[in-house]
Specification:
By secondary structure, the chain is an alpha/beta fold. The chain is about 30% helix and about 15% strand. It contains 11 helices and 15 strands. The protein has helices at about 1-10, 70-85, 120-130, 175-190, 240-255, 285-295, 300-310, 320-330, 355-365, 370-380, 440-460, and strands spanning about 90-100, 105-110, 115, 140-145, 150, 155-160, 195-200, 225-230, 260, 265, 275-280, 355, 405-410, 415-420, 425-435. The strands form 4 sheets. Strands 4, 5, 7, 9, 10 and 11 form a 6-stranded mixed β-sheet that branches. Strands 2-1-15-14-13 form a 5-stranded antiparallel β-sheet. Strands 3-12 form a two-stranded antiparallel ribbon. Helix 4 crosses helix 5. The longest helix is centred in the C-terminal third of the chain and has 17 residues, at about 440-460. The radius of gyration is 23 Å and the shape is elongated. The two termini are about 40 Å apart. The relative contact order is 0.23.
Amino acid sequence: MHKAQIAALTAATLVVFGAYYGLADALDLVPGVLTASPADYTVQPFPTASAVAQEPDAASGLAADAPVPDAAELTALANTLAGDERVGKGTTGVSIVDVASGEELVDVRAGSPLTPASSNKVPVAWAALSLMGAEHTLRTTAVLEGSTLTLVGGGDVLLAEDAGDPDATVGRAGLGDLARSAAAQLEAQGVTSVTVALDDTLFTGPTWNDAWAAGNESWVAPIQPLMVDVTAYPSGGYPADPAMDAAQVFADHLRAAGISVTGQVSRAAAGADATEVAAVESAPLADILSVSLKASDNTMTEVEGRLVALAAGEEASFDGATRAVLARLRDDGFDVSGVIMRDSCGLALGDKVPARLLAQIIARAAGDDAGTTGRSLMTALPVGGLDGTLDDRYVGISGAGTVRAKTGSLDTAASLTGTVVTAEGRLLAFSVIVDGFEEGGLYSARMAIDDDLVSPLAACGCGG
């Protein structure tokens, strides 16, 4: 399924999409005014950019000899954005890299660490794929010691409540399947009654990050190593204890399968002598990342950061995750000077990342020698006018189908990090961050990014 998805979405980047693709929350599922414009704007279900509409045949396919855009013209676009009254007092950082040559064509405060919002998910995704591999899967297991059956979380927060779907990413593994398989093994051993325990000790430290402002509970669940389908809560309302809720579901399915469950579900690490009786397995990491990046799911990304920590031999906590991500980037040859990561998902205003680092990660991922890591990361990014948090941006204008990027939106910061194919067929990697505008300015800052920089890049016939 993953290979087919890569092929389909790669083709989609070379096509201009001129139709509307449905009303969705395009402001990245992060805190702030997300579904309405600031008070001095009329609410618009489809934000209208001022860029010139693109003709159906205006975008060309990628060509090895496509002209490199003139750096001065691109820099002028970035400076226009930086001076746009719609970004107010915000500081703008822009880096644009020619993917084929690796040359940085635009440096407008590209090295200044700024609050990246959800563009922070890009380095986490790179580190996860680089360290664990695109085919890495997550196992949720049931282990038996004496008369205690323990549900052990392995990092899967997309578990189906009952039966899993082998062709799906969300719900590939099912708690009902796990319970029924465990019940069959128990019966084969002559065990008809058990107590049930939950082992969620894979992760350590607090489940809430003190760098997150109050109110962010609507945008991220408690960080635990198992959960029933985190994507079922697009507008918040997460369970207070997702792992325990999953364990209760597991116990209910055991009962339905004929196993007597005595007492209440307890919380305890599985003993060293416990033996595995059943297991279910998630979809591959590349497919999981496609869900988390396209939807900008904060909980999934925090879990992915902890999995990076475990793979790197770090403690699976907030701090361990960020240390592991930065260490992997450094090992892969990226300059992480000046980077501050307080979390993995980008909710923390204290995150500080230069636009240059983000653009360089994308340029590496989009390059010919990026391998599975790069291809998987690029496939997971939303496509302009098509899906994810870009599904209603660039609709009917330059950038539809040719922009593939991670969005970022906070009360006082907006970002966009990805690739764009110019009208002449040149592939550019870019990152733009606008940090520090006044609260309520998110809508206008986002529109300025699209109008002044990204849509003109897509329309660029500015070969040097």
